[in-house]
C-alpha cells in the first residue's frame, strides 16, 4: 500500500482535528484523497459499577473521504482548534498513561477507569463549543442564519441543547442521535453525518458546522459546504 497512516489523539474532538489535518494535506497538493476515521471503544475504559459515567458512553466508528477538487462549491471553509491542559482533574484516567502505566498489579484499581466531574465539564464544554462555532463562522463572514445543520459531538442532550441555545440556532437545525448510541467520543460526528446523509435531508451546497469538546481538554469547530 502507498497510503500514509497515522493516529491523532484528541479524544472527543478527534474527528474535528483529523478533518483539519487531512484537508490541509490535501490542499497542499501532495495528496488527492484522505480517509478520516473516528473510532472509539469506551466500554473497556469505564467502571461499570460507577453508574454516573458508564451509562453515558458507547463504542462506535465512522469515516469520511476528503477529495481534492478544482471547484470551490464543496469545501472545508474554516476550522477552529483549541486546547487547555489545566483542568486535568475534571476528566481523566489516573492509571494507564506514561506517568502511571497499567501493570498486572493495578489492573483492578478504579483509577484505571475514566473519571469525570460532570458539572464542571458541562460548563466548559458549552462555553467553548459555542464560542468555537461563533468564531469559525465569523472568520469566513458567515452568521448563524447561514447554517443549515449543526452537527455537534454527541456528549449528552443537555450539552447539545445548551450549545444550540448559546449559539442561537433553531433546534430543528441541530442533529441529535445520542439517544441511540451514547457518547462514542471521536465517532459521534461521522456517525451523525452518515445518518443525516442517509435520511435524505442533507443536500449538496448546504452549510454544515461540526463542533466538539473532549478530554485534554480539546475543542474545535469546522465549517464546510457539503
From TrEMBL:
Could you name the domain of life of the organism this protein comes from?
A: Bacteria
Stated name of the protein = 3-oxoacyl-(Acyl carrier protein) synthase
Q: Which InterPro entries match?
A: ACP_syn_III_C (IPR013747), ACP_syn_III_N (IPR013751), Thiolase-like (IPR016039)
Organism classification: Bacteria, Pseudomonadati, Lentisphaerota, Lentisphaeria, Lentisphaerales
Residue span(s) of domain Beta-ketoacyl-[acyl-carrier-protein] synthase III N-terminal: 6-85
Keywords of this entry: Fatty acid biosynthesis, Fatty acid metabolism, Lipid biosynthesis, Lipid metabolism, Transferase
Give the metabolic or biological pathway: Lipid metabolism
Q: What family does the entry list? A: Belongs to the thiolase-like superfamily. FabH family.
- Start and end residues of each Beta-ketoacyl-[acyl-carrier-protein] synthase III C-terminal domain: 137-226
| Pfam families attached to this UniProt entry | ACP_syn_III, ACP_syn_III_C
UniProt GO MF annotations: 3-oxoacyl-[acyl-carrier-protein] synthase activity
Question: GO BP, one example?
Answer: fatty acid biosynthetic process
Amino acid at each position: 500500500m502507498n497510503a500514509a497512516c497515522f493516529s491523532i489523539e484528541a479524544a472527543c474532538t478527534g474527528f474535528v482535528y483529523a478533518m483539519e489535518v487531512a484537508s490541509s494535506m490535501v490542499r497542499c497538493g501532495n495528496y488527492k484523497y484522505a480517509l478520516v476515521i473516528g473510532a472509539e471503544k469506551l466500554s473497556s475504559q469505564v467502571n461499570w459499577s460507577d453508574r454516573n459515567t458508564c451509562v453515558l458512553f458507547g463504542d462506535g466508528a465512522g469515516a469520511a473521504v476528503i477529495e481534492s477538487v478544482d471547484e470551490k462549491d464543496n469545501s472545508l471553509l474554516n476550522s477552529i482548534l483549541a486546547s487547555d491542559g489545566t483542568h486535568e482533574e475534571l476528566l481523566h484516567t489516573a492509571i494507564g498513561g506514561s506517568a502511571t502505566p497499567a501493570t498486572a498489579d493495578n489492573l483492578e484499581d478504579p483509577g484505571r477507569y475514566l473519571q469525570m466531574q460532570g458539572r464542571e465539564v458541562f460548563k466548559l464544554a458549552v462555553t467553548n463549543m459555542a464560542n468555537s462555532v461563533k468564531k469559525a463562522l465569523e472568520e469566513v463572514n458567515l452568521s448563524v442564519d447561514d447554517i443549515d445543520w449543526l452537527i455537534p459531538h454527541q456528549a449528552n442532550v443537555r450539552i447539545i441543547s445548551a450549545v444550540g441555545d448559546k449559539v442561537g440556532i433553531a433546534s430543528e437545525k441541530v442533529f441529535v442521535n445520542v439517544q441511540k448510541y451514547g457518547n462514542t467520543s471521536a465517532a459521534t460526528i461521522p456517525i451523525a453525518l452518515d445518518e443525516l446523509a442517509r435520511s435524505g435531508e442533507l443536500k449538496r451546497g448546504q452549510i454544515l458546522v461540526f463542533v466538539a469538546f473532549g478530554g485534554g481538554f480539546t475543542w474545535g469547530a469546522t465549517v464546510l459546504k457539503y
